[in-house]
Structure formats: structure tokens, C-alpha cells
Amino acid sequence: MGAKAKKKAITKKLKKGASDFSASSASKHEAHDFLPLEGGPAQKLPKTEVRENKATVLYIGRIPHGFYENEMEGFFKQFGTIKRLRIARNKKTGKSKHFGFIEFESLEVAKVVADTMHNYLLFEHLLQVHLILPEHVHPRLWKGVNRWCKPLDWVKIEKKRQDKERMLDEHKKLVEGILKCDKKRRKRIEAAGIDYECPEIVGSIQAASKKIRFDAE
């Protein structure tokens, strides 16, 4: 037998062995989804369930100043019915943190809003609108959503604090602090070489109590 005949017989034998191995493995396993690597047995790919996006909650970032709950509700209700709406606010001051959340009743409306309003220019701010998956929605996200926060009037609070009635010791301590700051200010003006006569602070000098004299009889 020549060399060509031997080579042909070996190739035929290898092909037969490969076919027998694939037939035996096919009888043990079901149909394979991909070819085996490095001669090992093939494995079936696990079936992955395609989850349908049922998100109806939107994150809205970069909310401009003045665009609060009433304004946001009036603007977004043109797309559809709003279920809940919340703007994140500072617990102490009540000021907006410039981001919030809004939930629509319809899934289709939420998708339209996310596609339409993302990077929408509003009062020189590009709104950032994204859908939040239901499993990523925090359970306490809508806590206190109906209690809309009103920002504190700090001018009124400070006025009330300054105008409150003080005892004599409290008033004396307040005047001493004001005079101490005024003294430092005068020294800084003199060190700068500025010829300026600072006016006296009204109320810093208290009049001495008058003594009542009784004429001797």
C-alpha cells in the first residue's frame, strides 16, 4: 500500500471516529446551541427571559429654579395623567435640590416623556429625564409626597429673632459684641491708611440712672 493510500485510510478512519463520537453525544444530550470548545462536550445555553420594561417612574434632573411642583405638574400633564410627583428638597431650608421624580399612569406616556424631554432646554437648563425600572424604585420614594414643602421665610425669622425683647444682661452682651466688631473695623481702616472718622454707634452709651433728691425739711 502506497503512502497516499495509507493517508487516505487514516483520514477516513478519523472521520468515522468523529461521526461516531458526535452521534453518541447527541443521544445523551439534547440539541446543542453552539459547537464544543477544544473537543469537549457541547452545553446547552440557559434560556433567558426577556423582561418587558414596565417602568412608569421618571427621574428628572437639573430642574431650574422656580420650576416647582405646581409648575411641573402643569407642564407634564399635557402628556398624560400624572399619578404622583415629588421634588427633592432640603429638610432644613425647604429649598429644591434640583431633581425630582414623576410617575405616570400609562407606560406609553412615560416612554414618550423620557424620549421627548431628555436634554430639553428649559430656563437655560438641559433637563435630564430617565426611566427608572420598577426594581430600582426605592420603597420610601413616595413617602410624604402629598405634603408639599413650603420654603421658610428666613427674613421674617431673622427679623423676629432680632426684635425679640431682651433682658438687661442679654442687651449688654449684644452691645459688647457689636462694639468689639466695630473696634476691629476701625483698626483695619487705620492700618489701610484711610482718613475716615467712623460714626458712633447709637445706643452704645447708656444714660446713667438719675438719683431722686429729697429736700430736707
Brief digest:
The chain has helices at 3-28, 69-76, 107-117, 154-162, 168-191, and strands spanning 57-61, 82-89, 96-104, 121-122, 125-126, 128-132. The longest helix has 26 residues, at 3-28. With 217 residues, it is α+β, with helices and mostly antiparallel strands.
Overview of the molecule:
With 217 residues, the chain is of the alpha+beta class. Helices cover 36% and strands 14% of the residues. It contains 5 helices and 6 strands. Strand 4 (121-122) and strand 5 form a beta hairpin. The chain is elongated, with a radius of gyration of 41 Å. It starts with a helix and ends in a 26-residue tail after the last helix. The mean pLDDT is 80.
Question: What would the keywords be for this entry?
Answer:
217 residues, elongated, 6 strands, 36% helix, 4-stranded antiparallel beta sheet, alpha+beta, two-stranded antiparallel sheet
Write the layout of secondary structure elements.
Blueprint lengths: L2 H26 L28 E5 L7 H8 L5 E8 L6 E9 L2 H11 L3 E2 L2 E2 L1 E5 L21 H9 L5 H24 L26
Antiparallel strand pairs: 1-3, 1-6, 2-3, 4-5
Poorly predicted spans: none
Question: What gross morphology would you assign?
Answer: elongated
Total number of beta strands = 6
Give, in spatial order, the strands making up the sheet with the most strands: 2-3-1-6
Distance between the termini: 164 Å
Strand content: 5-15%
Question: What value does the average pLDDT take?
Answer: 80
Biggest β-sheet description: 4 strands, antiparallel
Number of helices: 5
